[in-house]
Structures are given as structure tokens and as C-alpha cells.
Write a structure and sequence with these properties.
The protein has 169 residues and is an alpha+beta fold. It has 5 helices and 6 strands. The strands form 2 sheets. The chain has a 4-stranded mixed β-sheet. Strands 5-6 form a two-stranded antiparallel ribbon. A hairpin with a 4-residue loop joins β1 and β2. α2 packs across α4. The protein starts with a helix and ends in a 13-residue tail after the last helix.
Length: 169
């Protein structure tokens, strides 16, 4: 997609959202079904993904780890956002996006109550192939960071809620 094509697609959306901010609010939903053993089936937009335990917590490595899925979502969002920003700025760029996180499985397994459950640190790295000047690359990365939904969600710690109901039998 070229710079002018992206602007043409996004311009009416931006105008609509300026005029009616409520129109910009979209609820995304993910569904999972408890699977066999210690697994969970998640329907993605393209396929059925089966998540299970990471080998560091007793899994055999044949299912997706939810931590990996989180990092993959971050890398995917950052990559798509960077492509959109690069298109808007007319910067020709190729490359790789890597999301990396450190987990202490003592927390997940309840071995040490002081150990955190979840990622203690997450890093996002871009290896870029571009003819752009350094200041252009810095702007590209800055805007990617600013507009990446998953990155900003992790940074901002949104309000979360958990509830339950009994399923109909």
C-alpha cells in the first residue's frame, strides 16, 4: 500500500471518529475452550490454536505457550504499526521485529511466593533495513511505539476484571 492509498483509506475514518468519538470504540473478543489434559483451544481469525503448558512448567512443547502468544501479539502489532507509520512517512523499510520476555517459572509453579507470576521484563527490538537517515528511523520507532496497541496496553496496564458464570448444560 502506498502513502496516498493509506491516507485515502484512513481519512474518512479519522473524520468520523473526530465527529463521533463513540464510533471509534470497538470491542474485540477472544474465545477459548478448555481442551484435553492441560490445554485450551483458541479460535484465531485464521485457525484454531491449541495452547498448553510451557516445557518449563511441565508441558511437552507440542502446544503453544500463552506467554509466547503474548509476545507474538506484541511483535505482530509492532510490525503492522511500523509498516503503517512507514507508509504514512513514505519511508521504505524492511526488517525484523523481536519481542522477548523473561519469566521466572518459580512464580507460575508456586515454588516461591516472592517470585512474580508473569513477565518480569519484556523487550522489543527492531532490526531495520532502510536507506532512511537516523533521525527518520528514530521518528519511525517513536511513532511505532506510540501507536502500537499491544505495546501501549502492556505499558498502560488497563483496568482488568475477572468474573464467572455457570455454563448451561
Amino acid at each position: 500500500m502506498r502513502h496516498d492509498e493509506l491516507r485515502a483509506v484512513q481519512a474518512p475514518l479519522k473524520e468520523r471518529y473526530r465527529e463521533d468519538p463513540a464510533a471509534a470504540l470497538v470491542t474485540l473478543t477472544a474465545h477459548a475452550t478448555l481442551g484435553e489434559g492441560v490445554t485450551c483451544r483458541v479460535q484465531t481469525g485464521q485457525a484454531l490454536a491449541v495452547a498448553g503448558l510451557h516445557p518449563a512448567s511441565g508441558g511437552d512443547g507440542t502446544q503453544l505457550c500463552s506467554g509466547d502468544l503474548l509476545l507474538e501479539a506484541l511483535a505482530a502489532c509492532a510490525g503492522v504499526t511500523m509498516r503503517a507509520v512507514a507508509t504514512a512517512l513514505a519511508i521504505d523499510v524492511e526488517g525484523q521485529v523481536t519481542a522477548e520476555g523473561v519469566l521466572d517459572f518459580r512464580g507460575t509453579l508456586g515454588v516461591d511466593r516472592a517470585a512474580p507470576v508473569g513477565f518480569a521484563a519484556i523487550g522489543l527490538r527492531f532490526a531495520l533495513d532502510t536507506g532512511a537517515e537516523d533521525d527518520g528511523i528514530e521518528k519511525l520507532v517513536e511513532l511505532t511505539e506510540r501507536y502500537c496497541v499491544v505495546l501501549q496496553t502492556l505499558t498502560g496496564a488497563p483496568a482488568l476484571s475477572v468474573d464467572w458464570t455457570r455454563a448451561a448444560r
